[in-house]
Write a structure and sequence with these properties.
Length: 185
């Protein structure tokens, strides 16, 4: 979904072709886990978006002996799909990375809705943190092996740290979104 969001978001800015979008991704997003892109995946995604009616071919050109270059534009259906994908990314994420592509294109969505979804995500994360803090190993587990119990404590500590970090980041995101919403008014 992140690659689709990125393609549709870039096409909202203006018509473009897959190779140029690939260069934009490679130049501006160094982390492969945010948007994974290779030629096969990219061109497959463009074909998929074309079949869904989210994008349309604008122009096919050829310069000298180079391969044909197809320029695409976004359709109204594609603009709606972008919005829905961004909303869905805020509703369904299990870790924060899938939000990165969505954050790049917030100007195309209703910020009040994103703020609401982020507030709900903060509450879900607080509950996860509380559950993690409240969870205790069954009594029989501690009797099983002291070493395993220590290992579980080590793993649990890492899980708590990650949830706490996510919660802190989401709360900062909420402040950022509210500030952005005020600037739009």
């Amino acid at each position: 979904m992140q690659l689709q969001i990125f393609i549709l978001g870039i096409l909202c800015e203006g018509n473009n072709h897959p190779y140029e979008i690939k260069k934009l991704i490679q130049k501006n997003i160094s982390d492969e886990e945010i948007v994974k892109v290779n030629d096969g995946t990219l061109y497959y995604r463009f074909e998929s978006l074309l079949k869904k009616g989210y994008i349309t071919k604008i122009e096919v050109s050829r310069e000298n002996n180079r391969p044909e270059r197809t320029t695409y534009g976004i359709t109204d259906q594609g603009r709606e799909a972008l919005k829905e994908d961004i909303y869905k990314s805020f509703q369904t994420f299990s870790n924060l990375r899938p939000l990165y592509a969505s954050l790049l294109f917030l100007k195309h969505v209703d910020l009040a809705k994103i703020i609401d979804l982020t507030e709900k995500a903060v509450e879900r994360t607080k509950k996860r943190f509380q559950l993690q803090n409240d969870s205790h190993l069954p009594v029989w587990w501690g009797n099983y092996s002291k070493k395993i119990s220590e290992n579980i404590d080590f793993i649990t500590s890492h899980a708590r740290s990650n949830i706490e970090y996510d919660l802190d980041w989401l709360e900062k995101l909420l402040i950022f979104l509210r500030g952005t919403a005020k600037d739009r008014d």
